[in-house]
Specification:
Elements (H helix, E strand, L loop, with lengths): L4 H7 L13 H10 L10 E5 L2 H16 L3 H8 L11 E8 L5 H18 L3 E5 L1 H6 L5 H6 L6 E10 L23
Antiparallel strand pairs: 1-2, 2-4, 3-4
Helix pairs in contact: 1-5, 2-5, 3-4
The chain binds flavin mononucleotide (FMN).
The site of flavin mononucleotide (FMN) has 9 residues, from β3.
Length: about 180
C-alpha cells in the first residue's frame, strides 16, 4: 500500500498496540531513508533497534522510571498492561552531538519524515519521548553502549514502528487538529 503525502499527513496517528509481526528489511530501509531527507541544520544519527533484548531493557527501565514519577506519567505507567514501547518490533532512536544547536529540531524533523513514510506504507508508528528520559542518564549508559551510540551524543527523541494491532490500546482521545492559526493579510 502506498498513499500520497497529503493523505499520510492526515491519517498518521499514534499507534499504541502492535502485532507480533516483523517489519521486512526493505520496508524498514525505505522508512529509515525517509528520515535522511528532512530539512536539516546539523548532524544527527538514526539508530534502528530490532534486537528484542535491548528493546525490552529500554522498555522496562522506562516503565520503572515512569512508575516512580508523578502525575500523568505515573498514571499512564499504572494502567494495566502499559508498556512504554507498546510491543512494537522496531525502536528508532534519534540522537545528536550533545550540546549542538538545533539537535531537537533536526531529530524531530527526521522522525516526522519516518512517521509519515511508515503511514504511507500502511504501518503504524508513534513518536516517543519516554525512552529519552532514561537513556541519557549516566546509570543507563550500558544501554547507549549496546545501541552503539557513542559518548558525547544525546538521544533527543524516538519512534516505534510496526503493524497495528486491532485495538489501539492506550489511545483514548479522538484525534483533533492542533495549533492555532492566524492569517495576517
Ligand atoms: C514531544 C512529544 C513527545 C511524545 N511522547 C510520547 C510518549 O512518550 N509516549 C506516547 O505514547 N506518545 C507520545 N507522544 C505522542 C503524542 O501523545 C501524540 O502525538 C498526540 O497525542 C497526538 O496524537 P496523534 O499522534 O495520534 O495525532 C509524544 C508526542 C510529542 C510531540
Amino acid at each position: 500500500m502506498s498513499t500520497n503525502i497529503s493523505e499520510a499527513i492526515r491519517t498518521r496517528k499514534s499507534i499504541r498496540a502492535y502485532q507480533d509481526k516483523p517489519v521486512s528489511a526493505d520496508i524498514l530501509a525505505q522508512i529509515v531513508e525517509a528520515g535522511q531527507w528532512p530539512p536539516n541544520a546539523g548532524p544527527f544519527q538514526i539508530t534502528v533497534i530490532e534486537n528484542s533484548d535491548l528493546r525490552q531493557k529500554i522498555n522496562d527501565r522506562t516503565l520503572s522510571f515512569m512508575r516512580a514519577g508523578e502525575g500523568f506519567i505515573k498514571e499512564r505507567a499504572s494502567l494495566p498492561g502499559y508498556q512504554p514501547l507498546y510491543g512494537a518490533p522496531v525502536l528508532i532512536l534519534l540522537s545528536g552531538p550533545s550540546g549542538a544547536p538545533f539537535n531537537a529540531v533536526n531529530t524531530a524533523l527526521a522522525a516526522e519524515n519516518m512517521l509519515l513514510e511508515a503511514t504511507g506504507l500502511g504501518l503504524g508508528s508513534c513518536f516517543l519521548m519516554s525512552p529519552c528520559w532514561i537513556l541519557n542518564e549516566a546509570n543507563n549508559s550500558d544501554l547507549l553502549r549496546e545501541a552503539c551510540i557513542t559518548e558525547g551524543n544525546t538521544v533527543h527523541c524516538a519512534i516505534i514502528i510496526g503493524y497495528p494491532a486491532a485495538e489501539n490500546k492506550f489511545t483514548t482521545a479522538e484525534r483533533a487538529k492542533k495549533g492555532q492559526v492566524n492569517y495576517v493579510k
